[in-house]
Amino acid sequence: MLIQKADTLLEALPYIQRFSGKTLVVKYGGHAMEDEELKQQFAQDIVLLKFVGMNPVVVHGGGPQIGEMLKKLGITSHFVRGMRVTDTPTMEVVEMVLGKINQEVVTLINRQGGKAVGLSGKDGELLIARKMLVTVAEDGQPPTTHDVGLVGEVVGVNPRVINALTAANFIPVIAPVGIGQDGETYNINADLVAGKVAEALQAEKLILLTDVEGIKGKDGTLIPTLGSDQAEVLIRSGTIGEGMIPKVECCIAALRGGVKKTHVIDGRMRHATLLEIFTKEGIGTEVVRRTT
């Protein structure tokens, strides 16, 4: 048993050496944010990454928690291509819920011995956004454009705040809210924020935690490695649908923007982040530049 523990540590050694000093952007969301044990394990993973010399940056979501609060308040949610339609009352709830989640994540990491600092995309104009119009294309029908309200897309990232915190040995924890040129507040998909932040930091890895095993093909089996061209085909065919679309699209965009590797993994697994980084097999689906 002791030898097995030593072997496990030795398996991690080349990855620690390879990624020491590198930036890893991790999008935290889904069931991993709701299960108490998984919350603690995620915080442990992030702190371990920091203590072995890597620079983790956390971007968190909050979709289920926002949906639950809206339901309690009697506000009906509507989605277009995986994006929540956001009017002014909804935006107020989004900011409130994300602020609460942000502080919880910071506290979890700090309790495990890390030094986390919570940020909104509005802090230091970290995330500059503009209104997003969502285009939906259905088979045999011309594309239609939908106004989804105060939903934004990232048009600029100011990495100076993140770099300053990282240099001071802090772990940035970012809530996916951005600010427009006229001071408007925008709700932004956390996966898209994570991808844009990873691009701006030229991250070694972008890791998206989800509530599914990874990306699956038409036959329902997991795809361990997926080329970006093939991913686009699967989106057009409907094999990749709804909530998975923004995740895969942000992986593709991040790769084109200079991020080395992107991963969609199952956040319901214990220590999913460590398993992806420190083992040869990894878990979930790796989306790569290579065409298939």
Q: Which residue ranges are poorly predicted, with pLDDT under 50 across at least 5 consecutive positions?
A: none
Number of DSSP strand runs: 14
Classify the helix fraction into a percent range: 40-55%
* Largest sheet report: 8 strands, mixed
What shape does the CA trace take? globular
Nearest-angstrom radius of gyration? 19 Å
Order of helices and strands: HEHEHEEHEEEHEEEHEEHHEHE
Note the total helix count: 9
Mean pLDDT: 90
Alpha carbon gap, first and last residue: 41 Å
Report the structural category. alpha/beta
Within the largest sheet, what's the order of strands? 5-8-2-1-11-13-14-12
Strand content: 25-35%
Written description of the protein model:
With 292 residues, the protein is α/β, with parallel strands linked by helices. Helix content is 40%, strand content 26%. The chain contains nine helices and 14 strands. The strands form four sheets. It has an eight-stranded mixed β-sheet, sandwiched between helices. The chain has a two-stranded antiparallel sheet with strand order 3-4. The chain has a two-stranded antiparallel ribbon with strand order 6-7. Helix 2 (36-51) packs across helix 4 (88-111), helix 3 packs across helix 4 and helix 7 packs antiparallel against helix 8 (244-256).
